[in-house]
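Sample 3 of the quickstart, ligand carboxymethyl coenzyme *A:
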Amino acid sequence: FGLMTYDPAFLNTSSCRSAITYIDGDAGILRYRGYPIEELAEKCSFLEVSWLLLNGELPNPNELSEWTGLIKRHTMLHETTKKFLEGYRYDAHPMGMLISTIAALSTVYPEAKNVFDADNRKLQIARLIAKMPTICAYCYRHHFGLPYVYPDNDLNFTENFMNMMWKMFEPKYLANPILSRALDILFILHADHEQNCSTNTMRCVGSAQGDPYVGCSAAAAALYGPLHGGANEEVLKMLDQIGSKDRVAGFIHQVKEGGGKLMGFGHRVYKNYDPRARIIKWAAEQVFTVTGYNKKIEIALELERIALEDDYFVKRKLYPNVDFYSGIIYEAMGFRPDLFTVLFAIPRVVGWLAQWQEMLLDPEQKIARPRQIYTGHGERHVVPMADRH
Ligand code: CMC
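Result:
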């Protein structure tokens, strides 16, 4: 093992070369394909940014119109997929449902295995991006026993999603434009984040050349964990547990004494303010002009204020991350907390697919297969059962 590098949790390992997303964690910089995240959030739509991540350049008007049309054409789920969803208990966690439903799509589109055919790849990528909001809305409606609402192609990406979630009777649910734009911005912010745990999973599974559905299902499973995308749901639980602004200092004291983590704080790469959290804080202000002020934001702001002045957090360079404020916005918009990680997965599927495609086209990439430092027994021999004590 002389030449083997031991790097548990990849703290110091670059697993690939990538031209998609750039992060400078010390400076708090995030760029997609060279564009600052702040500019993309202000000037572009989620579908424009999806095209950018997948193709390397922003779309021109014709490309955007073709791309939007392609996405709209593939929003429907095969009817058998609905039956599949109906098999779940009413209280099944939507992430469990999402993970298995994405994998089930692999059986609906067996041609997806042909991963080196560029046209086929484009079709499967569009299908996945288009169907994620539909699956998410169906998971939600399944819980309440509500009839599913079919996609409405007169609406844009986020309006259509909100209509599938919340339409009750005719006419359609028309989202407040401030809210649908805020959701679009949140989708942009979550679309990619270089080699995070779920993206690394996507590349790892994809390196065995399986189809993108099984890859995205595995990536979504990685995202589900509370240290990754599951953190946004945990933040809301934490804010509920704290209950009021005057209990924040006591809670932080508890965290410092080893009583758990401050959820939505800290990041492997950012040792500065997560730029996405800054934009989300701004978006929250917009959302509250429509939904009214939310008591949880007061608790969150107080948490941030105290933590950013506290030696424990300063010394460890722990700042709010993307998950700290996102759940508060989602809740204000009317999403249930168990959907928060699904709301992370809808846009992140774009990053998974862009990174997967980049990996497939990279001649240096092979099947992911790390080595290990073996710490077990040396050779030994089986003792007959009668002699074992
Ligand atoms: N609250 C309190 N202490 C913390 C926190 C936190 N949120 N995060 C890290 N620390 C401490 C940790 O205990 C350690 O202290 P010490 O040096 O005394 O042992 C030190 O800071 C370094 O932490 P680490 O665990 O070595 O850092 P990591 O890079 O392995 O973990 C992390 C990064 C995001 C998993 C971690 O900060 C964490 O668990 N945060 C809370 C969960 C969270 O918000 N996750 C969302 C991450 S961003 C979006 C995403 O990826 O989905």
